[in-house]
Write a structure and sequence with these properties.
The protein is mainly α. It contains 6 helices and no strands. The longest helix has 28 residues.
């Protein structure tokens, strides 16, 4: 876990978030056929993982039991998991409305994680 902790602390929150948003905007600009797959798979889900680890280590999570970390992961990024799950279910069942619902839930998750990272970056006093 120490190597993982060093890796996540080495990443800058603004660089991660901005690069994911840039990839998403480029995919939309070039009108890729399956931009929704990129938004959910390459932006929403990795951003949920990154924000979770960023938050968990800020709260002293490196000293927590693994079961508590799993519970916190499920509780922390519910919107991201819900969006990813709905999108995956829509793809498997070939239901466009589930895909769109999952996509918009993922976009909401991306916005919420951006607000989370921005609040840490601009308003966190380090305590």
């Amino acid at each position: 876990m120490d190597e993982l902790k060093v890796f996540f602390r080495s990443l800058d929150a603004s660089v991660v978030y901005l690069s994911l948003i840039l990839v998403m905007l480029l995919a939309i600009k070039f009108k890729l056929a399956r931009t929704s797959y990129l938004v959910v798979g390459l932006c929403s889900i990795p951003l949920s993982f990154y924000c979770f680890f960023y938050w968990i280590y800020g709260a002293g999570g490196d000293r927590w039991a693994p079961a508590i970390i799993v519970i916190e992961a499920l509780a922390f990024a519910q919107l991201g998991w819900l969006g990813g799950g709905l999108f995956l279910l829509g793809v498997m069942l070939r239901k466009n409305y589930l895909e769109m619902l999952g996509l918009w839930a993922s976009i909401g998750s991306i916005a919420a994680h951006g607000i989370f990272l921005g609040s840490i970056l601009f308003f966190w006093d380090g305590s």
